[in-house]
Every structure is written in structure tokens, then in C-alpha cells.
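Good day; I would like, with your permission, to put a structural problem before you. The record follows directly beneath this note:
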Amino acid sequence: MKLVFVCEKYKSKLVKACGIMEQVVSVSGFQTARCEIDEAGQDAKENIKALSGADLLVIGTEPTGWDGVISDNLKKFIASCSHIEGRKVVVFSLKKLFGDKKALKNLMKAVEERGGFLFDFDIIAGEQDAKAFAERLKSAKK
């Protein structure tokens, strides 16, 4: 089974959380790949090939404000990515004092509007949460 992690490469906490999850699931025999979006909002064209053949997409966000806004770069990526349609998608938001729940809802809405099937979602506060969430991802194999 192939899992692809989608994250914004200029957000170090997000990249770290994706890396932790990748390590946990790869030990269990999952194939993993990463599609990183840069600050200019490019679709990481060299990495977009990783999305084809993905059984599960894992998309993370880091809220940009107290109002739960997800970044324009991530919105543009989701809106333009045809690989989301008809696939299982897992979404997560990094924990913030304010806005994380709303950011998660906004991300879920964007994925559903693009035709993705939400498989799971969570708010990740740290390394232990990322590991626990990755353990749940293993159930996608069934």
C-alpha cells in the first residue's frame, strides 16, 4: 500500500510531523512518498508523480491565524490536484492555541469539494500524537 504525505516544505513543524508518520508506517511495510509544496505555491511538479498510484493521501496543515485559515498555497494545490478525486484522504492540523479545529474543518471541506473520501482526521500536538495518528493510518491497509 502506498501513502503519500502532502505538506508545505517551508513549515518545519509540519515537515517534522510528516517525517515522524512516514517512519512509523514505513516500518510496517507501507510504501511512502512525499509531495512538498513550496512558498511560491508551486505544485511541486517533480513530486506530483508521487501522487499517482497512491492508495492514501495524507495532507497536513498548520493554521496561519486564530481564524483557522489554511494557506493559499495549500488551497491552490488541492484545487488544482486531480489526484485527490476518488481517493482516500487523511487530513491533520497542527495544534495551535486558536484556530486548529477550524483549519481542520476548512481542510476537510477543501478535500471533499475536490472529490476525496475522508478516511480519518486529527489535530496533532506533538511527536507522540503524530506517532499515534500514524498507527491509526495502518488500519487503511485492511
About this structure: The mean pLDDT is 88. Helices lie at 12-27, 72-80, 100-113, 127-137. DSSP finds four helices and five strands in the chain.
